[in-house]
């Protein structure tokens, strides 16, 4: 008798967390657009605060880089995939989504900093997008719930061509950011996977 109310309560909780994730993502993307407008109008050369490879001062760019873009075309190309993949990454809980986002930014950013050539600055939300892609697909493998598997298969089919972005074949594109964002997403899925009980019956 209690199963139906509990199911409804759980569903409402998921909807509330999904709504919270949408608000968070929209605010983040809006901030990216506001920053790009400021950078264009002043101009403020804000892109200098991205990830500067092998420079100690460039480490601060790990936090700032996802919010910085090389022009409105770059930002426009990143906005929709960020919203879609970010939402799919958040459907299993807002707390896990926030934790995954922080791990992707930090782990992916550090990997980018270590592999980006000296004198080069990497900016853009692409690392975060690749991180969400890796997180969603790997979550389906590690958590093995029906919902996670369905989402993982759908994302893999829709965005598989993204994987070409981890190859160093496009001048001016930070393949390092793509590659380590993807790796960070997989690591996040592993760290945040749902642990199964180790209890056994006897």
TrEMBL record:
Keyword Membrane: yes
TM spans (from-to): 12-35, 55-75, 82-106, 118-138, 145-167, 173-192
Gene3D superfamilies: Rhomboid-like
Pfam families: Rhomboid
Cellular component per GO, a single term: membrane
Membrane topology, as annotated: Multi-pass membrane protein
GO biological process, one term: proteolysis
Annotated Peptidase S54 rhomboid domain residues: 59-194
Recorded GO MF terms: serine-type endopeptidase activity
UniProt subcellular location: Membrane
Assigned keywords, A-Z: Hydrolase, Membrane, Protease, Transmembrane, Transmembrane helix
Record-given protein name: Membrane associated rhomboid family serine protease
